[in-house]
Amino acid sequence: MDLSNLKPEDVKVVDDDLAVILAQTIAKYESDSGKTLQPAHIERLIINTYAYREALTRQQVNEAYRQQHVRFATGLMLDLCGDDVNTPRLEASAARCTLRFTGQALRSEVDIPTGTQVAVGEIVFATIEPGRLTAARPRVDLQAVCLTSGPAGNGWSVGQINTLQGVFAADVSAVNITVPSGGAGTESDAAYRARIMLAPESYSVAGPVGAYEYWARAVSPAICAVHVGHALDEKNEEIGGTVAVTVLTKTGMPSEELLAQVKTALSAERKRPLCDTVVVRAPTEVKYTLVAELVLLTGTNALDAKTAAEQAWAAYEAAKQEQLGSDIVQLDIQTALKVAGVYDVKLTSPASRVLKPYEWAKCTSVRITTRVEQEDG
């Protein structure tokens, strides 16, 4: 039996069907009293009330039982399941970027201590390593982390983070040279559940695929998908002893800072076989455009149908954005766009394509139009 397809309502320890409970209760009362009940009898009204309350109690019993299992647990109960396998939920993570400090015509050395702050509005980034500016080396690049956890630090353009805090000479400036990313909220139940189910793999060093995936996901809640496989050479042949770990984040391509974090985590001697070489990389981006024409049923409002199709596409694309190796399938796209009032979907782009497990499909533009002529269906 494939437990991955098991539905919560299929897992019960007691029957919680209201109709069954009501029938059993009526039959028991009639057997004990020798009286046949009619729907209008006062006893039926009382039995209906208590049968309903018993059904609710049984449903709560079944739900309490489901909450003992990782596949169905939520919230605190899922945290307790994670505690059983030494896998705590990941707290919110902060965005990271690289800050460039520059000195102009320096007359003396300038130390940039760990914790030096550079801001953009109310968002502040602090360096996590020290640096030094000299006349011979007037520029230094340092890693920095946002002091506000969560996605607030993500996405600032190169050059936007430029307000240097603290006492520095007027000829010292700082600016971000990478777009900060990696900030995410507390790990969701779905992502946390996936890590808990991978936890037994972590009992070994990261030789098995599952172990590499477990330790990579444990780095940050911003990571939504991981693929582990052999690194390939120029002839597309496997490189022995070299493990390629592909990482995708909730906001898309991972930053160099996050990739470095994952590589550091996977390179620990107790987390990988001694002779493994680990390569951590971003996915191979497969860009495509959506060009579709909606053929409408007669009487359908074109604007309403187009708006519904655009919303359906946004939901479809959002789900695929957190998946690696998700194929581009024309039939799936047409199905998503065939909303109420749409007779047919004429798809010009994209063409169907099978992706490799380390590739990531990204839609770069959307053009959905409606045909003037309508069909009766």
Automatic annotation (TrEMBL):
Source domain of life: Bacteria
The Baseplate J-like central domain, residue ranges: 205-282
UniProt-listed InterPro entries: Barrel_Baseplate_J-like (IPR006949), Baseplate_assembly_J_pred (IPR014507), Baseplate_J-like_C (IPR058530), Baseplate_J_M (IPR058531), Phage_Baseplate_Hub (IPR052726)
Residues covered by the Baseplate J-like C-terminal domain: 289-368
Domain Baseplate protein J-like barrel: 98-183
Name of the protein in question: Baseplate J/gp47 family protein
Source organism of the structure: Uruburuella testudinis
Taxonomic lineage of the native organism: Bacteria, Pseudomonadati, Pseudomonadota, Betaproteobacteria, Neisseriales
